[in-house]
Structure prediction request, 225 residues.
Amino acid sequence: MTAERVAVRRFSALVATVAWFGVLLQLNLTLRLSLGNGKTIGEGMIVFFGYFTVLTNILVALVFTVPHVAPATALGRFFVRPGVRTATAAAIALIGLAYFFLLRTIWNPQGWQLVADSVLHYVTPVLYLLFWWAAVPKPGLRWPHVAVWMSYPFGYFAFMLIRGQLTGNYPYHFLDAGAIGYARTLANALGVLLAFAVLSVLLLVAGRLQKTFTSAQEREGSLHV
Prediction:
């Protein structure tokens, strides 16, 4: 194994560890809050898995964990696909940007909740995007992939609206159909979907620029050999 591959594996392990730490810390905090409010563990789990942030951080953790523990399985091969890893990059980038611009000013977490928030919304996104830039192959990425990647946030919004209709609970204030109505909720959801699409396109452009720059460097290096 080359030194480069060893470095990638070690960095992958770091990102996976950080992602799982953030997810499990938030799970612990959510369940403790749920029990403290007289609710059940099951109700706490429903709240926990209702957040796009949590689901996407779990996705990041699985991208690294499954190929490591079960590389020969269909799921292991799925999570190493450049398209899957790029869609994950778009989703985790959206998490960081949405939190910074829409959510960070509406509450003031303290203690371990501040740690969980920082890991889930800032540390893991930055680390994963660094991994994507350095280690994910870009040549096979194509514009039509964006439409496929959109199924993830679209599916989440459909799930969230159905769940909210059944429970009366919505995880995000700007998507709370019970408080702001369905028209505004759908408009906000479309805005988030558009942001995801823009981020996906930007990643594709960045990947092509990286490929072009790398090829130019290789050609220049060959001229000096």
Notes: The chain has ten helices and no strands.
